[in-house]
Design goal:
The protein is an alpha+beta fold. It has four helices and four strands, in the order ααββααββ. It has one domain. Helix content is 33%, strand content 30%. The protein starts with a helix and ends with a strand.
Length: 98
């Protein structure tokens, strides 16, 4: 975990759309560390849920385990520390869950 994501979050500009926010995050962290997981309606707004990957070496096997037919148990809390969830609404509101 080589990057302090809270610093970038604190310096984040105000966004007016999901596209603006997504572009900023991708520019800051790259395509391999800012990953769309799903989108749905929340409080009447289209909301996009991203994972901001902090530790790719832990995160990648964790995510690959979901597509495996072999039962996988999470035995270490570091799995959940390997990423943060970022919610971005269609109008650019960003909610950061460290």
């Amino acid at each position: 975990m080589d990057q302090d994501f809270t610093v970038e979050y604190g310096q984040m500009p105000t966004f007016h759309s999901h596209e603006e926010a997504r572009s900023w995050f991708k520019e800051q962290f790259g395509d391999n560390r800012f990953l769309l997981r799903l989108s749905n309606m929340k409080d009447g707004k289209r909301t996009y849920f991203y994972h901001l990957v902090k530790d790719p070496e832990v995160y990648k096997p964790y995510m690959e385990s979901f597509s495996s037919s072999v039962k996988h148990e999470i035995t270490h809390f570091d799995t959940f520390k390997s990423y943060s969830t970022i919610e971005i609404t269609e109008d650019g509101e960003v909610i950061f869950q460290p």
